[in-house]
Here is the input.
Amino acid sequence: MSSMKLIVALAIGFLVSSLVGAFLVPWLRRVKAEQMIREVGPTWHQHKSGTPTMGGLMFIAAIAVVCFTVGFGYVMEGQWGHVLVLSFGLVFGAIGFLDDYEKLRHHQNEGLTARGKFLLQLAASVCFLFLLRRMGYLESHLYVPFWNMTLDVPDWLYFPFASFVIVGCVNAINLTDGVDGLAGGTCTAVFIGFTAIVWSWGAEYMGLGVFAAGMTGALLGFLIYNFNPAKVFMGDTGSLFLGGCISGMAFALDMPLILVTLCLMPIIETLSDIIQVTYFKLTHGKRVFKMAPFHHHLEMGGWSGRKWKEKEIFTLFTGVTLLMALVSVLGAMHRFGA
Here is the structure.
């Protein structure tokens, strides 16, 4: 019965997302919600200027429908985790929407200030963590996958660490959204991993499993429009929502360290950006990568001299993340003696 609900959640997520997209994409074109492409990026991306943005609204709508249809029964049973994760994602999606709106209003690629976005994200993270604690979903300890052990951590250390993880995860997903379908494909693989982990744990966590399965379907529906060549971009509305949902899932499952394996590719993206900026400043203009984040380095033929196509980068990131999702499942499935 639980497996069937996961399948139904995936199917509803896919159908709603793809149907919403059929109306949303033309509407975004009509209202001229067009993405401005950064001039400092690869020159061949300039032809994408004018592609509609804020397409993330289609998978946001889809997962909301899943939560209040397939997931509604779990609320009646006292499982609120999926609703909390949805709410958390919506807060981050709202921050992304404000950022997208500012970009559209000023017809440029710069929206909210970096400081403003960081403070909003940090405030949302702290509120979410204390809400999870109050509702009994979170304790000040760290479950270590693969070793199947739990480490006690004092509150004064745990909450700053947890806030850092959430903000870092959200911005890592945002960085990954730089090539057609890349963030969508990578996050689809992440939610497949979450779905399998929850399925292995049993009925007590199945509300969160419905959420993960629904997000998998919703993102597959979105990729119909976002796969290269993209008809629509998810925008910060979508990428921040995804980052919020992924980090929210990890903490609602009381297992944030699973993000190390599940989100390996977004972590590489973030590290490449940090390394590039740091090295550039220390060496007064030298670079480690052709361009950061890492997917642009591949696009521009870094190291090998061969310029990767967008579909190849999509395949690499999604494939590696699917592999890491399998590794993550193996590392976490025996947490409760399954």
The beta strands are 141-144, 149-152. The longest strand covers residues 141-144. The mean pLDDT is 91.
